[in-house]
Write a structure and sequence with these properties.
six-stranded parallel sheet; alpha/beta; about 15% strand; single chain
Amino acid sequence: MKPLEILGCRLDPIDSREAAASILALARGSGGAQVVTLGTEMVVHAQDDASFRAIVNACALSLCDTVGLLLVARRRGAPLRERVAGVELIDRLCAGAAAQQLPVYFLGGTEGVAAEAAAILRARFPGLRVAGTRSGYFRDDEGAAIAEAIARSDARLLFAGMGSPRQEYWLAEHLRATRCGAGIGVGGSFDVIAGRIERAPPIVRRLGLEWLYRLLKEPWRWRRQLALPRFVWLVLLDRLGLRPVRGGTPS
């Protein structure tokens, strides 16, 4: 199916199995393909940040990571059964990387979190080659040196868990210098894998209420959740043809 455009942002309506297969194929190449796991907060941010919107639309893949986008995509005829959640996608990618002997690199989180997540995944998927790990706390002027270190590790697939939009901007600027075939922004997935953050129970995730569970567990996140009603409002305006036209939309 052709990509969709939701509020000026491209979305590739593929499921997690298709996404993992495509990313692993990109990782075997040398194009430095960037992958974004797109969420409603990111789409709302893109309304006011043309550079970020351009990065999303230039990515090799833009995947549906939240329920809001999933519902809009379904209304537009996309045959998506579920969102492509970052944690499950990492599992699929690590399983495939282990089978194909593709070295992976974990960049992000606070000190030690990336290493913990990598160790858990290596135990879960015997044969997984972890090329290296590093925290996501570094100065902007250290970016080039970090990219060079990743290049020396011979990693083919890079997981960047630095939060959005920082991880997308970093990958757009430095991914090619890492010489990884593919790089994907995974937000706070390392914290979940390492057990630092408790994930919502499966039934809550199936009901599409993981955002509410996170808000109840971490009430200080309420300002971030304001993106959801704004997203709904913008989608409504868009359906009525009342949303201002913005540049940087996909062709």
